[in-house]
Design the sequence.
């Protein structure tokens, strides 16, 4: 795992955007794995800004998002479909039909999960996967005790995850109880992954992911097995890491910000 520690969230987001830009420069027709969550919002904004500036084109790329809530159709404003449309897809130049998320309104969510995994395989697999990190160590919606070899499937959401995500649902409205999510095995099969985590609330999950044992109770620790995983952190998210010597402290505009 390459761990990059930036002084603040804005610098961490810019570094993550640099990696996406570099991936698309290397491979304009990349299959991207995309993510949602509060952490991704400024990253999506940065990618849209770089597109407006002519630095970044998604015209030949395709994308698969990590997950979607079961029961929310693409037109539901709280769905990840709507989030991605608002934050990124409507602001950049993906070709029509080039972006995909699991269909949360599918009559048979289990069949939809299998079809989604098959569609990723048919696209040749994911070249570059973006990830956020749940406070309980989840990635996608792979909650603690998820099988480390799991593939896209329906998962029950932890109460703590529903609580953390309630802010996106408005007062008195709880998030759905289930989601369709890429599995940990699906994520591990991506050729390159980049996890972005910012803020003190993620510090314990970051410590367990990077320095703790590989364990299904910390799903993100599966990235210890990935040959090309980069973890981009701000100082707050990195604040509980003990093995400081092993990490790259990156100063924006200089330092070993290897992309
Ligand atoms: C959701 C998403 C995850 C994301 C996590 C963290 O649960 N399914 O993919 O990593 O939220 O969200 P945030 O960035 O809002 O803390």
Sequence:
């Amino acid at each position: 795992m390459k761990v990059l520690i930036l002084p603040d969230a804005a610098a961490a987001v810019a570094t993550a955007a640099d990696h996406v830009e570099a991936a698309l420069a290397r491979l304009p027709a990349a299959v991207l794995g995309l993510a949602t969550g509060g952490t991704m919002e400024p990253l999506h904004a940065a990618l849209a800004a770089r597109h407006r500036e002519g630095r970044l084109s998604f015209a030949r790329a395709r994308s698969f998002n990590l997950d979607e809530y079961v029961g929310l159709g693409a037109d539901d404003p709280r769905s990840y479909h709507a989030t991605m449309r608002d934050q990124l897809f409507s602001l950049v130049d993906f070709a029509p039909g080039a972006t995909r998320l699991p269909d949360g309104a599918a009559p048979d969510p289990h069949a939809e999960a299998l079809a989604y995994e098959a569609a990723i395989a048919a696209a040749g697999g994911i070249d570059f996967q973006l990830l956020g990190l749940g406070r309980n160590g989840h990635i996608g919606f792979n909650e603690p005790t998820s099988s480390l070899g799991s593939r896209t499937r329906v998962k029950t959401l932890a109460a703590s995850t529903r609580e953390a995500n309630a802010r996106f649902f408005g007062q008195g409205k709880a998030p759905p109880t289930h989601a369709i999510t890429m599995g940990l095995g699906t994520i591990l099969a991506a050729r390159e992954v980049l996890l972005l985590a910012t803020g003190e609330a993620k510090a314990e999950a970051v410590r367990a992911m990077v320095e703790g044992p590989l364990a299904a109770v910390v799903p993100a620790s599966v990235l210890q097995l990935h040959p090309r995983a980069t973890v981009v952190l701000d100082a707050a998210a990195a604040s509980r890491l003990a093995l400081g010597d092993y990490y790259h402290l990156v100063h924006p505009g200089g330092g070993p910000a290897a992309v």
In short: The CA atoms of residues 2 and 230 lie 5 Å apart. The radius of gyration is 17 Å.
